[in-house]
Amino acid sequence: NAGVTQTPKFRILKIGQSMTLQCTQDMNHNYMYWYRQDPGMGLKLIYYSVGAGITDKGEVPNGYNVSRSTTEDFPLRLELAAPSQTSVYFCASKTHDGTTNEQFFGPGTRLTVL
Amino acid sequence: LAKTTQPISMDSYEGQEVNITCSHNNIATNDYITWYQQFPSQGPRFIIQGYKTKVTNEVASLFIPADRKSSTLSLPRVSLSDTAVYYCLVGAEAAGNKLTFGGGTRVLVKP
Question: Which among B88, B101, B105 is the top mutation candidate for probing chain A, defined by the most A β-carbons within 10 Å of its own β-carbon?
């Protein structure tokens, strides 16, 4: 299994540009998450999904959109990039078994908005 | 979601045991306590999870007192490669498993 994969690894955007961060998992996990991590800080939840067709906001959803059309994919969309969105973005997934809090994280996408 | 408090940083030396205590006074009945490790430029990695008493795996031990208002992650005989940020999280598996990552504890292992 490849686990959780994210593309691209790095990206530089100009203010006002749009982009989609891709996330795919091959573990058939129900739950998927998008986090952002600013330098020296902890992770903040942007959006999450408990299954295909179901998404919900996390702690910092403004400026982002998500969709979950399949179990495997959970893309994150930035519509109008702003410097405040410069961060490292992590996607994660988790199985739904009633007990475990083990999330599997991807390698991250480092985004810079200039 | 239960709020957690843990030290900002800790220094240790190779071969020593490192203990990181996390406070979570408003933990709920259904909440589990979970610890993650994060190396620079990588995503967090699950270390251990527990509900009460003691849990041990090949990497660490987790001690949880009866009142569950705190927990202690114990890393035995650390090496330089254990230098990382360690996060304590509290939450239930239900409700989409929204976990809150605080600032974590930066552990520096010196030679």
Answer: B101
pLDDT of residue A107: 95
Instruction: Name, in order, each residue with C-beta under 8 angstroms of B95's C-beta and a sequence gap of 6 or more.
Output: none
d(CA A33, CA A104): 10
Q: Give the three-state DSSP class for B96.
A: helix
pLDDT in tens, A42-70: 899 999 999 999 999 988 999 999 999 99
Chain A residues within an 8 Å CB radius of B41: 108
If one compares B92 and B94, the residue with the highest pLDDT of the two is B92
**A21-32 pLDDT, tens digit each:** 999 999 999 999
Chain B residue closest in CA terms to A6 = B43
Shortest CA distance from B96: residue in chain A? A50
- In the stretch 57-76 of chain A, residues with CB closer than 8 A to chain B read 58-59
**CA dihedral sign, ordered A68, A73, A77, A83:** positive
